[in-house]
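Example record for the data management plan.
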Amino acid sequence: MEPRYIDKYYIDVDAYDMIYGYRADDSYLAIAKQFARGEVGLNILERLLTLGSFGVQVCLKSQQAYTRLRFINVYEVDYKLFHTPFMERDAEARRRMKELVNSPDNDLSQTIESII
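Corresponding structural encoding:
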C-alpha cells in the first residue's frame, strides 16, 4: 500500500483488546479495490459495504479479551438452514452492488484520489 494511504488512514490498534468493523469477506475486498481504482465514489461507499447485511466482524487480540469470553450454549443446526439464505443474500447483495456502482448515484468526483 502506498505510504500516503497509510499516513492518512492508519489507525494504531496496539492499545485495544478488541476490534470490530465490517466483515471483510471477498465482496468487501472487491468494493475496496473498486474504490482504490477510482471506480466508486465516496458518497456510495458505506452503502456498498452494508448491502449484504452480514453484520460486523470481531477480532479479539489480547489475552484479557479472551479471558472475558463466556460459553453460553451450543445448538446443532441443519447446514441448509443457514447456508441457503446466506448464498441468496450474497447473490442479491452482489446484484445490488453492481447496480449501484453503475447508477447515477455513483459520484466519481469524490474518489480516493480527490480526498487524499
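Summary line stored alongside the record: Residues 79-101 form the longest helix (23 residues).
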